[in-house]
Structure formats: C-alpha cells, structure tokens
Amino acid sequence: LGPRMDRYGEDGSINVIPGHSMTFAVLGTLMLCFGWYGFNVGTAGAFDLGNGANTLSLIVMTTTLAMAFGAIGAAGVAYIKSGKVDTLYTANGMLAGLAGITAITNTTSWWGAIIVGLLAGAQLPIVFEYVSETLKIDDVCAVFPVHGSAGMLGALLMPFVAVPGAVDSVANQFIAQLVGVVIIGGWTLTATAIIWYAFKALGEARVTPDHEQDGLDIAEHGVDTYPEFGGDRVATDGFGPTEDDEIKTDGGEDQEIRTDGGREIRTDGGDPDLKMIMSIIRPEKLGDVKKALAEVGAPSLTVTNVSGRGSQPAKKGSWRGEEYTVDLHQKVKIECIVADVSADETAEAIKEAANTGEPGDGKIFTLDVEDATQIRTGKEGTDAV
C-alpha cells in the first residue's frame, strides 16, 4: 500500500501528520474498552451459577487489569523516552493490554494479567518507533504494536501466568503457543499478501493522489467533513469549483485588474468617509475588545477564528511520541467599519483592550473602504454603516 502522501521525506525523514482530534481518539478508545467486554466475556459461551460464573468473573477481572496496566506501561515508557505522558500512547496502551490478554483471558491469574498488561503497554512505544522509523512502514493507527506484537506477547506468556491447573507442562504449552503464533501469523501474512497484491495489480490498492490530497470525504462522498483542514479547492459554501476546476479570485472577470483601488484618487489629501479597523488578537481578549468598542460607539463587528504566525514563539506538539512544531497560533480577527466614529479612537480602544504586554498580542490595521451597501434597505456609503 505504501505510506501516506508526504509521510516520509526524500531523505527518509519523518513528517508528523497528527490526527484532527485527540478528543475523538480518546473517546473512541474508551468505546473500544467498553466493547472489549463483549469480545472476552460475551464469547465465553457459558453463564450459569456453577463453574461458568467463576469463569466469567475471572475473564472480567483479567480483562480489566490488563487494560488498566496496559495504559500504565505505555505511559511509563513514553515518559521515559520523552519526559511527557503521551496521551495517545496511553490510550493505545489500554488497547494493547486488552489485545495481549484476549487470547488467554480465561486461564490467566490476576497477577499474570497485570504482567501481561504492563509488558503489552510497555512494548508499544518501542515497537511503533521501530516500525515507523526503522522499517519505514506508515502504521497510521499503531495497529501492529497494539494488536500484532501485543497479541503475540500475551499468547506466548500464557503458560507462565496461568492459574493453577490450567497448564500441565509449561514447556509443552509454550511450544504449542509458539506454533500457534507462527501459524496464525503466517496465514495472516499470506492471505493479506494475496488479496492486496491482487488489488495492487488492478490499480485499486489505494486512491489517486488527487483524492488523497482532497480527502476521501469529499472525493468519495462529496461531503466536506473537516473544512478547517481543506485546501483551496474545497468550497464550503455549498458551491463547487468552476468548470475548469479553478477558484476565481478576481471576481471572475477577464478585464484588466486596476491598481488604483478602482476609484478616483483624491488629490486634496482628504480621507475617505469609511474606514475598516481590522485587528488580529488573542481569543481570550475578545470580550474586553467588544466592551471597549461598545464604549467608543462602534459596537458593530465581524469576528472570525483564524490562525497565524508572527513574533509569538512556536510551541512543540507530540503525536504518539513524534514531536512536531506548532507555529500557527489560534487568534481572532475582528473587522469593524466606522463612519461617524474616529478610526484612530477605535484602533486605540482595541489596542488598550487587547494588550497583555507579551509577544503574540496581535496587530491592528486601518483600511480605506470604497463603498458600503446595506442589503435590506439599499442604503449606500456612510448611511449604510
């Protein structure tokens, strides 16, 4: 299948592609954790007041312990490697603990479940780093360290952590477990290779580069699910690109673009009657700025969430242990058109309200406005404002 577009540089360097929502990633993990009791408890096939009830209680206990200690193991190794408790590794560690215990959940002791969970979680960051950085396999969801290596580890540990009476010979049982892991792994690799090489031969193994760039939501379904991550080809107002697949930014006219502002330039030094005060500020200062504008008599405004880069220092982010730079900071853009209120006074009010004295407070721009039209009444110029 190959890696995602731009995942690896030409020199083999890794480009981090973080998911769109850590919140959804953790929420999905917790849904899986809840459903895993269906995997283990629900497939036990016995529920009565006799020995079956004892089996079910053992399965519930070992499942829960392995899940919890899988998170602890992954978080601990991530902290040792990076100095931070990586949220995604912790979430994946819960699943690694569950994958590690699933094959042996009805034969494992309580202390064995703790060991399996810890080891399954601890190997996760190490194996993922090896797969991603050394083998250069783009394992987007850390599937191999969560399900592959964690599952193999749990299966092989079975004779060493079993409850009394579950195993007659530790050595013989280990050989049986090893044979099972090899056969299951070999079958999986063979079947997968046959299916996907067939798809690859037909040119159907992966989507086209254009579809990958646009995202499959828009390419396959025509739905722009995450517009904040879309490119300039993705229209979010209900209209698509033009017939030639281009977005026109000049008004759609072929006439020569004027460079004089499109109007007669005053030569008497007079200022236009309309001014736009556009400011980029910290989101947490929006309330103060709104209050300040109301106090100077300019309460009408338009607010847009934006991101940008300036003098504010960049921050470091981490996605499953891979560090990346966050140099686009969340800001708020405020646009305010004034006619009978001093533009300088309006700008000064914004400056006083938005100032914290720290880099990243933003900027204020004062622009000439050629004309304005009120849609409801048709009023123009200063009357419209």
Please tell me about this protein's structure.
Strand 3 and strand 4 (322-326) form a beta hairpin. The strands form two sheets. Strands 2-5-1-6 form a four-stranded antiparallel sheet, covered by helices on one side. A two-stranded antiparallel ribbon has the order 3-4. By secondary structure, the chain is α+β, with helices and mostly antiparallel strands. The chain is 46% helix and 10% strand. Among the domains are: 22-167, Ammonium transporter AmtB like domains (Ammonium transporter fold, Orthogonal Bundle), CATH 1.10.3430; 275-383, Alpha-Beta Plaits (2-Layer Sandwich). Residues 231-271 have low confidence and may be disordered. The radius of gyration is 30 Å and the shape is elongated.
Order of adjacent strands in the largest pleated sheet: 2-5-1-6
CATH architecture of the domain at 22-167: Orthogonal Bundle
Number of DSSP strand runs:
6
What's the main sheet like? 4 strands, antiparallel
Number of helical stretches of at least 4 residues: 10
User: Class of the domain at 22-167 in CATH?
Assistant: Mainly Alpha
Oligomer: single chain
Which SSEs are present, and which pair or pack?
Blueprint: H1 22-40, H2 51-82, H3 87-102, H4 110-134, H5 143-161, H6 170-201, H7 209-214, H8 216-221, E1 275-281, H9 286-295, E2 302-308, E3 315-319, E4 322-326, E5 329-338, H10 343-354, E6 363-368
Antiparallel strand pairs: 1-5, 1-6, 2-5, 3-4
Helix pairs in contact: 1-2, 1-3, 2-3, 2-4, 3-4, 3-5, 4-5, 5-6, 9-10
